[in-house]
UniProtKB/TrEMBL annotation:
One of its GO terms (molecular function) is methylmalonyl-CoA epimerase activity. Keywords: Metal-binding. It comes from the Archaea. It comes from Haladaptatus paucihalophilus DX253. The keyword Metal-binding applies. InterPro entries: Glyas_Bleomycin-R_OHBP_Dase, Glyas_Fos-R_dOase_dom, MMCE/EMCE_epimerase, VOC_core. This is VOC domain-containing protein. Residues 1-131 form the VOC domain. SUPFAM superfamilies: Glyoxalase/Bleomycin resistance protein/Dihydroxybiphenyl dioxygenase. GO terms for biological process: L-methylmalonyl-CoA metabolic process.
Length: 132
């Protein structure tokens, strides 16, 4: 995450997660845990819909790819999938909150669901899915 406050706001206000653990500075152990020499920054933990989600915002060392946005076709892509009961309603609700979608909800026969992809504030791909 490039801006932890912005991400907390997005995941709380748009996706409905709750802030479980307030922002805290990374400990000295994170350098070893992450395998990143000189790692420093902050993290927060959010919870909702049966998941716990930890977000990290490292301020050192500098991120060389700060302006790079991976697309769903790029190697290394990953995403979160949020199952909803009414994808059309969530699509409209999220759009009203300024969420950028890659396209409108569509039926995907291979997974017997309707899906729509969108970006979080850092350009991470997210998916809404409504089982048919």
């Amino acid at each position: 995450m490039s801006d932890l406050d912005r991400s907390i706001e997005f995941y709380r206000d748009v996706l409905g997660l709750e802030l479980l653990r307030e922002k805290k500075e990374l400990s000295e152990h994170h350098e070893d845990l992450l395998g990143v020499e000189g790692a420093s920054g902050e993290f927060a933990v959010m919870e909702g819909n049966g998941i716990k989600f930890e977000m990290k915002c490292l301020d050192a060392p500098a991120n060389k790819n700060i302006n790079a946005m991976r697309g769903p076709h790029d190697v290394g892509d990953d995403h979160f999938c949020w199952q909803v009961d009414d994808i059309d309603a969530k699509y409209e609700e999220f759009r009203e909150k300024g969420v950028e979608f890659l396209g409108e909800p569509e039926s995907v026969g291979t997974v017997q669901s309707r899906v729509a992809y969108f970006y979080d504030p850092d350009g991470n791909v997210m998916e809404l899915v409504e089982p048919e």
